[in-house]
Amino acid sequence: MRTSSLTGTIAVLTGSYTPDSGGDGPGVAALRLDPTTGHLSYDEVETLPVSGASFLAAHPSLAVVYSMNESDTGTVSAVARDGDGTLSPLGDPMGSGGANPCHLTVHPGGEWLLTANYGSDTAPGTVAVHRLGTDGRLLEPTDLVVHQGSGPVTGRQEGSHAHQVLVDPAGLFVLATDLGADAVLTYRLDTLTGTLQQTAVNPMRAGSGPRHLAFAPGGDLVFSADELSSTVTCHRYDATDGTLTALSSAPATTAEDIVNQPGGIVASPCGRFVWVTNRGADTVAAFHVAGTALEPLGEVPAGGTWPRGLALVDGHLLVANQHSGTLAALRVLQDGTLAQPHPPVSAPSVVCALAL
Predict the structure, then answer these.
(1) pTM for the complete prediction?
(2) Distance of CA 205 to CAs 7, 111, 183, 185, Å?
(3) Cα separation of 156 and 318, whole Å?
(4) Looking at residue 84, what is its pLDDT?
(5) Residue 45: its pLDDT value, please?
(6) How far apart, in Å, do the first and last CA atoms of the chain sit?
(7) Which whole-number Å values give the CA distances from 69 to 84, 130, 335, in the listed order?
(8) Chunked in runs of 10, what are the mean pLDDT values of the chain (356 residues)?
(9) What sign does the CA torsion over 65, 197, 187, 158 have?
(10) Nearest to residue 231, comparing CAs of 273, 190, 260?
């Protein structure tokens, strides 16, 4: 990730499954995006072998990135970025508080790391909190909440499965999706002790399997990618108590006679558009937000197969195509539709991307 000869480009890190976690990727890798052309490139490729790096989150003020290590004995890792782009471990990995961690985020104050652990067939989903040092390294765990519940989809909803944890735009509440329990749980984080207090349980449609959420910029609407029902749902968000009310829903893809699972979801900074990846249809679908209704704008090829992670970077959507091992940059047009100006780049077992 050397930048001296690449002024005007944006640094991007990718996360991938490694050979010891069922893939053939390097873990964490660095590349560049040219925001003018949408061209992706590697420059003196910098990698760090973080096992099962299926999601990345940046510290809000330090040159530190966090990754989970997705496995039945889950851990989380801190990665330091030097001025020349060199990646190095920052301290030792720490237990994630559950099996198969799949999402994490740093609280806006920079003092706490929140991790969603999917769980397993025998272990429930959990949400964990770790204290962060002044240099960004992981310190002691301060709380662990265990989710409960189940849903009607055989093989996927016999128990709880926490899938995402994020802080609302006002920084007041922590929301955790649970794919297995068809719910979004709301917590308050005590920023002195690092403990979570549950304040609400927001039930979702039975069998919908909420995977990820994306807030509209005003914070009054939140959109969910519903993995098991292959839908996208618009919810009203009440910032006074962290509750959600479903308002409208739309199919995530128009493809028929396939099993489709929405993955990543992103809302535009203007609040007028939402995009979602479709694993199965292998597309990225665009929607116009008309009040509280979701109007399909069409979908385009994802630039590979099994598009999982989705990140909005300076007018482009970065699409991590896990099974084909490709990373694509789709240009966002003024009407919210998408175009692919350049061929995707090779990125073995890639599952997420993070702009720095």
Answers:
(1) 0.95
(2) 47, 34, 8, 14
(3) 28
(4) 75
(5) 76
(6) 11
(7) 25, 15, 38
(8) 56 96 95 94 86 97 97 96 89 97 98 97 96 98 98 97 97 98 98 98 98 96 98 98 98 96 98 98 98 97 98 97 98 97 96 96
(9) positive
(10) 260
For tokens 């496995």, the residue is 71
Q: Give the helix, strand, coil percentages of the chain, each rounded to 5.
A: 0, 50, 45
Nearest residue to 139 via CA among 97, 99, 91, 107: 91
In angstroms and rounded to an integer, the radius of gyration of the C-alpha atoms of the chain is 19
CA atoms within 13 A on the CB side of 262: 33
Question: Which tokens belong to 122?
Answer: 């025998």
Cross-strand bridge partners of residue 213:
224
Q: Are 118 and 164 in contact (CB under 8 A)?
A: no
Token pair for 9: 């480009």
- Give residue 4's pLDDT: 35
Contacts (Cβ under 8 Å, ≥6 apart) of 251? 230, 231, 232, 296
Domain edges within the chain: 227-301
The pLDDT score that the predictor gives to residue 85 is: 78
Q: Length of the chain in residues, anyone? A: 356
What pLDDT is recorded for position 10?
94
